[in-house]
Structures are given as C-alpha cells and as structure tokens.
C-alpha cells in the first residue's frame, strides 16, 4: 500500500463518527465484554507464528478505548491489561475507513508518528484488517505489529485478512440485526442449573374418628 492510500485511510473526523456510531456500539456490546477469549488467543498465536511478528491482536474498538480478547506479544503491563485507550489505537482507523491499514514505519508516518502506541506498545509496523460481521458492523481489527520496520508482503496481508474474516464469522453469531434497537442477551456457554425447588406433596387424608398409628 502506498503512502497516499494509507493517508486516505486515516481521517480523524470520519473515524470518530464511525467509532461512536450507535448501531456499531450495540453490535460491540452484543459480543460481551470479555477481555480474554481462548479462541481468539489461539488465533493470534497462529498468526504470530505464521507472520513472525512481535505481536498479533484481536482488537475490539469501543467508544473510549479498545480491548484485546486475543493478544500475544504485547509488553507485560499491556498484555495483562488486555486493553488500551484510543490514544494508543491504530485499529480505530480501520473502523473509520472499513479498510485495511498498512504501515511500514509509524515513526515516519505523517499522521501516526506521535501515536502513543509506538512508545508504549512497541508498535513500529502495523497491518490490520477490519473485523466485519454479517450485519455489516465493523467491530475492530485483526492486526499484526512489529517493533521494527516491516515491509508487508501480499501474502502476509491476505493472511491477516483471512484471520479477520474468521473473527467476523465468529462474532456474527451474537451481532444484532440491522435496525434492531437493543442487542440480544449474550448466551453463556454455561448451562443453567436445574431448578431444585422442593415441591411439597399433599398429606394423605384420614377418615374422621381415626388416630394415626
């Protein structure tokens, strides 16, 4: 991706409107607020092995920040937190443009050079693809990052897009339909315990004038 295309993907006004879109936020709420997801962790581990990058993330972009239900390779404090504010977000621009964002060296990027993720999360190179549900909501991005400049190949970008598509399919199971006012309740994987209320049986009746033995 050339610089002009990358710059076109970064529009702060468009990004802010997309991140705060009520329908998108309902879709984000519908998938639950878990900060750790074993399925997502397995996916990012696979991506990190294939791509050989410093980190890989499933990033869900919320109104005021982002959380990482899948994360591997972040610096220790951030790996434990599994979340970061939007001041540390490249993925928000993927939400804003609904397109992949590819950055070879963020330190030299005219827009991203002062993003806090560079110093705090060691994000020098970034490649992220949108996580889009079947209802058309962009929940965030599947991304790979490197602590050194990285020239992304076409094969690597196709792999990242494929991982993002798998996330979109998984999260679509809980995505509200277009026009739905409220998200459906998240179904827990735990089954409800059986009702153990005690039902009192009626006492047997005795003929009048008899005594219990």
Explain this structure to me?
The structure is a single chain. 35% of the residues lie in helices and 18% in strands. The protein is an alpha+beta fold and 213 residues long. The protein has a six-stranded antiparallel sheet with strand order 3-2-1-6-5-4. Strand 1 and strand 2 (65-72) form a beta hairpin. Helix 2 crosses helix 6 and helix 4 (38-51) packs antiparallel against helix 8 (154-172). The longest helix is centred in the C-terminal third of the chain and has 19 residues, at 154-172. Residues 1-7 and 177-208 have low confidence and may be disordered.
Tell me the overall shape. globular
Tell me the total number of β-strands. Answer: 6
Spatial sequence of strands, sheet with the most strands: 3-2-1-6-5-4
Structural class: alpha+beta
**Major β-sheet annotation:** 6 strands, antiparallel
* pLDDT < 50 stretches: 1-7, 177-208
Q: How many separate helices?
A: 8
> Helical residue percent?
25-40%
Indicate the proportion of strand residues.
15-25%
Distance between the termini: 94 Å
Mean pLDDT reading: 83
Radius of gyration: 24 Å
Q: Which series of helices and strands comes N to C?
A: HHHHEEHEHEHEEH
Q: Say what oligomer this is.
A: single chain
């Amino acid at each position: 991706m050339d610089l002009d295309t990358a710059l076109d993907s970064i529009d702060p006004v468009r990004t802010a409107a997309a991140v705060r879109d009520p329908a998108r936020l309902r879709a984000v709420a519908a998938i639950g607020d878990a900060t750790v997801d074993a399925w997502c962790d397995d996916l990012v581990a696979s991506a990190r092995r294939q791509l050989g990058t410093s980190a890989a993330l499933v990033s869900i972009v919320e109104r005021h920040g982002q959380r990482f239900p899948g994360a591997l390779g972040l610096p220790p404090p951030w790996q434990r937190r599994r979340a970061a504010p939007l001041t540390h977000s490249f993925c928000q621009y993927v939400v804003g443009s609904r397109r992949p964002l590819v950055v070879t060296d963020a330190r030299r990027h005219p827009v991203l050079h002062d993003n806090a993720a560079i110093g705090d999360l060691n994000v020098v190179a970034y490649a992220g693809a949108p996580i889009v549900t079947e209802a058309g909501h962009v929940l965030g991005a599947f991304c790979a990052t490197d602590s050194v400049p990285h020239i992304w190949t076409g094969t690597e970008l196709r792999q990242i897009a494929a991982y993002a598509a798998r996330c979109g399919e998984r999260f679509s199971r809980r995505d509200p339909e277009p026009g739905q006012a409220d998200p459906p309740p998240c179904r827990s994987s735990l089954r409800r315990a059986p009702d153990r209320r005690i039902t009192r049986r009626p006492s047997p009746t005795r003929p009048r004038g008899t005594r219990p033995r």
